[in-house]
Design goal:
This protein has 243 residues and is an alpha+beta fold. It has helices at residues 3-16, 27-35, 64-73, 116-120, 146-150, 184-187, 194-198, 215-222; strands spanning 20-22, 25-26, 49-54, 89-95, 102-108, 126-128, 134-136, 157-158, 177-178, 204-208, 225-226, 238-241. β1 (20-22) and β2 (25-26) form a beta hairpin.
Length: 243
């Protein structure tokens, strides 16, 4: 079965009803959990959630967003090899070779409009919601890690060991790939992502990119912003100011 055929099969069976994936787990239940808001309404293509990060306010030594992400999403496991640690958001330092200016900025899943992780996933576990949030369905993920190789931002992690003390609203599991979800469980309740609320300098702005009256859309329209690796034409949902 080809890649497109597999996706077509999953979409078709989801429309037909309850398809069992594992004991007690059904495809319809997974789809509903990931596309329903707290108010019971599905994600809408009329919205596109995104984030604008002002790097001029982001201090090199500050990791408040990283800590908030870990606390909110139950990322607390200890690993012997740091390369195997899950990290949904990390701080990176960049330097402009032309003028020597340096910037510190948070790097996470960029929630691309054309996500390469979705294109290469053989099972459809990597997916994009109607409102632009890119997610991984751990019930379908087979841990092949093709998406990790495809992501130009190194934004995905593989869970190498059993997990404890998890947030029940944020399902994670050994053998699965995971990444920033923009705190979708909070967004669907009308809240902001944890990293945005935790930023002491208010350098992170979250909102609807499709709403011209939203604060984030007005800011992007009025100041110079950039996409990381804009040359790839992925139309990222995360934009940066000051780089």
């Amino acid at each position: 079965m080809s890649h497109n055929d597999r996706r077509g099969f999953l979409a078709a069976t989801a429309g037909l009803g309850m398809v069992a994936l594992a004991p007690g787990v059904h495809l319809m239940q997974v789809a509903q959990a990931q596309t329903k808001r707290a108010a019971g309404e599905p994600a809408s293509r009329l919205q596109r959630w995104g984030m604008l990060i002002d790097t001029t306010k982001c201090a090199a030594g500050c990791d408040a967003c990283v800590k908030a992400c870990a606390a909110e999403n139950g990322i607390n496991e200890t690993v012997a090899d740091p390369r195997q640690a899950s990290q949904w958001i990390r701080k990176i330092d960049i330097k402009d070779p032309k003028n020597g200016r340096q910037h510190s900025l948070p790097m996470m899943c960029q929630h691309c409009a054309e996500p390469p992780c979705v294109d290469v996933c053989p099972t459809g576990a990597s997916m994009k919601r109607a409102d632009g949030i890119v997610l991984v369905d751990r019930h379908i993920c087979i841990g092949c890690r093709y998406c990790m190789m495809a992501c130009p931002y190194k934004a995905r992690s593989f869970v190498h060991q059993p997990l404890t003390r998890q947030n029940p609203e944020v399902p994670r599991g050994i053998g699965c790939v995971e990444s920033c979800t923009l705190c979708v469980h909070r967004v669907d309740k009308g809240l902001k992502p944890a990293c945005v609320e935790a930023c002491p300098e208010q350098a992170m702005l979250f909102g609807d990119l499709e709403d011209p009256n939203s604060e984030i859309a007005r800011r992007i329209a009025s100041v110079a912003t950039a996409q990381v690796r804009a040359d790839l034409k992925l139309d990222t949902g995360v934009r940066y100011q000051g780089i």
